[in-house]
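Here is my example:
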Amino acid sequence: MRSLILGAVTALMAVGAALAGPVTLKANPVDSDGRVTLGDLFDGAGSASDVMVGTRAGPSIVFEAGQLQSLARQSGLDWANPSGLRRVVVRNAAAAPSAVAPVPRSAAAEGAPPVVAARPQPARAALAERVITRNDMVEVAYEVGGVRLTITGRAEGNAAVGQRLAVRNLQSGRTIDAVAIGPGLALAGPAGQEARATQQLAAR
């Protein structure tokens, strides 16, 4: 009898795994109320769309890719992570910038946050409209020669769009010189310098 029960349980588990529906990670996951659900993350989540997997307290929340695969699998979804992502960032839909610059196909990755074009603003508006506050979690993108890298760190000060900002990498402890381009977003390297120069030119 015991062997029959164990066999039935094993068969049910196998059937559940076989019925797991394949899903695709959204290109720019966002949520609107701080409750991050599988529907916010994946296309094709179906009846599991309302399953909550995290709570966003700041401008963004970062998930480990392996963690998301496990949470999706528990709800009958199968995300293969074909691009081999390590982390997935979900942002506040209300603060997510709408102007997005195209990313070279060779550098694009499923779920990778897009590079946001800095919007020229008058000098007074830039001073008043702070987009990053000290201790905010900030995602910094670095692009050079078609290669794009991103890290998430903590803001060392306040900044408006186009202003320089020091961001501390929580893993290495090093400080990165970046330029704010939106809520919780910054650019480093040549792209950051270009964004700052564009903002300064517009303010003249």
The chain has two domains: 1-96, 99-204. The chain is about 25% helix and 35% strand. Helices lie at 2-18, 38-41, 65-74, 123-128, 190-203.
